[in-house]
Structure formats: structure tokens, C-alpha cells
Specification:
Amidase_dom; AS_sf; Amidase signature (AS) enzymes; Amidase; alpha/beta; 10 strands; 14 helices; ten-stranded mixed beta sheet
Length: 446
């Protein structure tokens, strides 16, 4: 199976640009060349006829306004970044994967884009999203095999990084829209704790769950970007002591939702980590998982419907079938049912945290998806392996962790405690090392 990985990692790109070994104009030119060469096949970016001129102008302005030498250049100086097309960017229209008139979707630039630009990043363009980040797929293909889905709804962002078009991309997750595409496309995906990155300037899916995150080809890139993107990042993390974390396996109905190939791969990943010296404990949790799933979608669909009340009233005929179905389902859910589901979610969060603490678990581990990406471009795949962690608002990562029998990537999901994003990234470094030593797939540029 041919992979398009092979370009510089985010850490390498940022170091070259900050040191002066490279310059933003060259980075902009390379990015446009790569998009022109690869994106007709992958379709990760929203088409933009004036991309090269816009990006070149931004690169010149950055170079002329910034420090003359390496000293003082910010963390992402000159780095091209893809931004999911539900996130407003000044100078670029927001279409949200929809056929609605662009004037229906205008808004001020997102806070996350402000942070990227303060850090010196260049916005390479908008990346494709499922319609309104729900379930109707965009045109993006999986870079490892274009006949297969890249996942959703952050499909374009994950595929753009996997195909070497940009070293960093922004996505969002409501249920599984960051972690699943990362697994399917063989990159690292990071979904922070709910609320850790402000959602100002982002078109909502379901505001009780929506969380901004990012993709890179390796964990070191995520560690470089996270302090730029997240509120109040602690660079010296006292919560991750100098020891290996205790890993928890969430035994029970949740884990049984993965397919046979994913469970077989997960067993092998567990054995690797145990052999490397990790303590891995099975913890029976979520015996009522079917109810947890139902309650999440009660809240999710209710909030989707309310987010689209005015637009849907004006343009119902322009919405795609999957999105319309979600909105119609949400409109049938009453306020009392929503409030009851929200109360039960609070109880679920408290129970999950208590179960983990009682078992002495530092990080949960699980398959990042039910299996490899399906050979079906009409679906974005199942979010069921991400659902409980999104429901609890917990920080999570997907690390590349081998390949399925058909050659497509698989991912291992790591989940931390609420607010302990720094610990998650710190502890994940050695987990990534163990996985890379065994599965032997170097990150881009190595």
C-alpha cells in the first residue's frame, strides 16, 4: 500500500523556519506545490483558486514584520497550517461542507486562528469537513488508499497531514471526529479536555461536546502546538511524575464494540506495553454502555437541531440527507428528555472518574476506532470507540499503532484525566516510542 508520508515533521519544519535555514516564502511555495500535486487525488482542502498568491503575500508580510534573526521568532513561525472549514478565518469564506449561501455562515475570526497567527503560522487553507461537522461525508479520500474513507468529520485535516501537504492541521471533535480520522489516516490526533481551547468563531455542532484539537505526524509536533492552542498550558507538569503511568483497559460492553481485527491488534499492543514494563490493569466499567450511547445522542441531536433552527427554517432543501435526519431527530427530543440525559451524563462522568481512581489508573487505553477505514466513501465510520471519552470531556490521543491485514493504519487511543492534558502528552512519549520500535513506521521526514 503506497503512503504519501515523507515530508518534514512539524518539529523539523518549525525548527528550520525559526533558525533561518528556511524562510516563510519558500514554505508557502512548497506547500502550494504539494497541494497542487497531491490534492486532486486526496481532496483534503477546500478549493481556493487564489491560494498561491494569498499565501505568498502572507509569507512576505510575516517575514518583513518579524524579527530579522532567529531570536524572538514564535513557535510556529512560517509554518503552514490547515484549518477545518467550520472555523472562521479572516479572508477565507466558511462553507462548512454545505451548499448554503456563504453569507449564512459568516462570522469573526476564531480565537484559535488568532492564536495560530500570533504564533507565526501561515493559514494554508480550509480543510474539508463533513457537512456542519455531522455525518454527511465530504469528498476527501484516505491518503493510504483513496477507495477508503478518511473518517469524519475532520477528514480533510487528518488527510492533509497524512499526505504531507501541511505539518499541522486543526480539527474538531464532538463524538469521534479527531481521534477516528487520526487512526484511519495513520497520524497523531489530539483532542484536549473539553473547553481547553476556546470555541469562539467556530460553527457549532453540539456545544456541550464540541472540542478543538490538532493533527501532526508525531507526538513531538502535538507537544509543540498544544501550548500555542490551549489555555493556561503548564510547560513543567508536576502531575506527570517521573514514572510510567498505570494503564487501564476498560473491560466490558464498550470494548466489545470493536471488531475482531481491532481487538486482536489491541491485544498485541497491550502485550508490547506490558513487555516494555508498563502495568496494565483491566477494569470493568460502563456496564450500561448502551444507555450511555443513547443519552449522548439525545443531547447531541437536541443541540444540533437547536444550532440550526434559523438556518434550517430558511434552507432545509439545501441540507444533505444525513444532516437533515440528525436535525429532525433532534427536533423530536423535548426539553425534559434533554435535561434528564444531561443529568445522567454528569453522573456518568463522576462514576468513570471514580472507577479509574479506585483502580489506580493514570491513562485509559483502547482501540482508536472499531477497525481500519472502510472501503466506503458514503460513511465516515463509527465513532463508538471515542464516544465515552468525549461524553466525559476527557483529553485523548490517537497514536499510529500498526496496520490491518489490508495495509491500512490502526491507532491506539490514550485517554487522560480531565484537565491533565500535559500529563497525557508527557506520558505518551514513551508509549509512542514503544509502538514505533515495534511497528517501525517512521514519522514524516525521518
Amino acid at each position: 500500500m503506497t503512503t504519501l508520508l515523507g515530508y518534514r515533521s512539524l518539529v523539523q519544519e518549525a525548527a528550520a523556519l525559526r533558525s533561518g535555514a528556511d524562510d516563510p516564502l519558500d514554505a508557502a511555495r512548497r506547500t502550494c506545490d504539494r497541494i497542487d500535486a497531491v490534492d486532486p487525488r486526496i481532496r483534503a482542502f477546500v478549493p481556493e483558486p487564489g491560494r498561491r498568491d494569498r499565501l505568498s503575500t502572507a509569507a512576505r508580510e510575516l517575514a518583513s514584520a518579524g524579527p530579522p534573526g532567529p531570536a524572538g521568532r514564535p513557535a510556529l513561525y512560517g509554518v503552514p497550517v490547515g484549518v477545518k472549514d467550520i472555523v472562521h478565518v479572516d479572508g477565507l469564506p466558511t462553507r462548512a461542507g454545505s451548499a448554503l449561501p456563504p453569507e449564512e455562515l459568516t462570522g469573526p475570526q476564531a480565537a484559535v486562528v488568532d492564536r495560530l497567527r500570533v504564533a507565526g503560522a501561515l493559514i494554508a487553507g480550509k480543510t474539508v469537513t463533513a457537512e456542519f461537522a455531522v455525518t454527511a461525508p465530504g469528498p476527501t479520500r484516505n491518503p493510504h488508499n483513496p477507495a477508503h474513507t478518511p473518517g469524519g468529520s475532520s477528514s480533510g485535516s487528518a488527510a492533509a497531514v497524512a499526505a504531507g501537504m501541511v505539518p499541522l492541521a486543526i480539527g474538531t471533535q464532538t463524538v469521534g471526529s479527531m481521534i477516528r480520522p487520526a487512526a484511519y489516516c495513520g497520524v497523531v490526533g489530539f483532542k484536549p479536555t473539553y473547553g481547553r481551547i476556546p470555541l469562539d468563531g467556530v460553527i457549532p455542532n453540539a456545544l456541550s461536546f464540541d472540542t478543538l484539537g490538532c493533527y501532526a505526524t508525531e507526538l513531538a509536533g502535538i507537544a509543540l502546538a498544544a501550548p500555542v492552542l490551549c489555555d493556561d498550558w503548564r510547560t513543567a507538569d508536576a502531575e506527570a511524575p517521573d514514572r510510567r503511568p498505570v494503564l487501564g483497559v476498560p473491560a466490558g460492553p464498550y470494548l466489545e464494540r470493536a471488531d475482531t481485527e481491532a481487538l486482536t491488534a489491541f491485544a498485541a499492543q497491550r502485550e508490547l506495553l506490558t513487555a516494555a514494563g508498563y502495568e496494565v490493569r483491566e477494569v470493568p466499567v460502563m456496564a450500561d454502555y448502551a444507555q450511555v450511547v443513547a443519552e449522548l445522542f439525545t443531547m447531541n441531536r437536541y443541540e444540533v437541531a437547536r444550532a440550526h433552527t434559523e438556518r434550517f427554517a430558511r434552507h432545509a432543501d439545501l441540507y444533505r440527507q444525513q444532516t437533515t435526519a440528525a436535525i429532525q431527530e433532534g427536533r423530536s427530543i423535548g426539553d425534559a428528555a434533554y435535561r434528564a440525559a444531561a443529568e445522567r451524563r454528569t453522573a456518568f462522568r463522576e462514576r468513570l472518574a471514580a472507577d479509574g481512581a479506585a483502580a489506580g489508573i493514570d491513562l485509559w487505553i483502547a482501540p482508536a476506532a472499531t477497525g481500519p477505514a472502510a472501503a466506503d466513501l458514503t460513511t465516515t465510520g463509527s465513532a463508538i470507540m471515542c464516544l465515552p471519552w468525549s461524553n466525559a470531556g476527557l483529553p485523548s490521543l490517537s497514536l499510529p499503532a500498526g496496520r490491518a491485514a489490508n495495509g491500512l493504519p490502526l491507532g491506539l487511543q490514550l485517554v487522560g484525566r480531565s484537565g491533565a492534558d500535559e500529563s497525557l502528552l508527557t506520558w505518551a512519549v514513551d508509549v509512542e516510542r514503544v509502538l514505533n520500535e515495534t511497528f517501525g513506521e517512521p514519522a514524516a521526514g525521518r
